[in-house]
Amino acid sequence: MIEVFNINWPAEKNVHALTTTRHGGISTGKYRGLNLGDHVDDEQAAVEYNRKRLKTDLNLPAEPKWLNQVHGVNIVNADDLSGVVDADGSYATKSNCVCAILTADCLPVFISNTQGTAVGLFHAGWRGLANGILSKAVTTMSAHSDCLIAAIGPAISHQSFEVGSDVKAIFNSRYSDVSDFFHRSKRRNHYYADLYGLAETQLYQQGVKSVWLPGSVCTYKDEKRFFSYRRDGQTGRMASLVWIS
Fold this sequence. Notes:
Blueprint: E1 4-6, E2 15-20, H1 44-57, E3 75-77, E4 89-92, E5 99-103, E6 107-113, E7 119-124, H2 126-131, H3 133-142, E8 148-152, E9 162-164, H4 165-174, E10 182-184, E11 190-193, H5 195-205, E12 210-212, H6 229-232, E13 238-244
Parallel strand pairs: 3-4, 8-12
Antiparallel strand pairs: 1-2, 2-13, 4-7, 5-13, 6-7, 6-8, 9-11, 10-11
């Protein structure tokens, strides 16, 4: 049976949000478990089986609207999406349209209006955060309500995400104060970056009313439950899903 990480945010009851773990699939080796990424050189038959099992085990109302994620800021309307497009976020206002993204350390960011009539899901790694994926997400979702809530799913924690001074410099050049989210590591000119903190701050600055965080979850540290690109390099992907029933 597929195991999921439930997003326990204060959304309306008709809004469903979750992130899969690596438990429940048939992939083997580096992809052991429920790998849902079809772009990581896993056996295609295994990925197809895992995706079919995802739909049946979770009783999804429709096939997820998969994206070809490119660490950009393109956001698409999933309601009328008929094929895979280059994008790092999607939103839906129709019932039973399942938005989906794949991650293995990056942040899955869920957004809903408080009425439960519009939902969105966004892929936010450090590049996306630096380039403004979340400000664009909030602007897009604000067309359906000016009262939004958000949640962040399982991702890499700041204790495990080391970056160079070039990454810190990019954020410094684009945002007023990010010093609280970069802490020096033992390596010269390297820092531990707090993606959770950066994302939470950006969401609040954009006017989101509440942001739910997953506690002490870290995809890098929890090898039994989560895939981690930073830990393993070649590995599988978890799926995050959101939809309105």
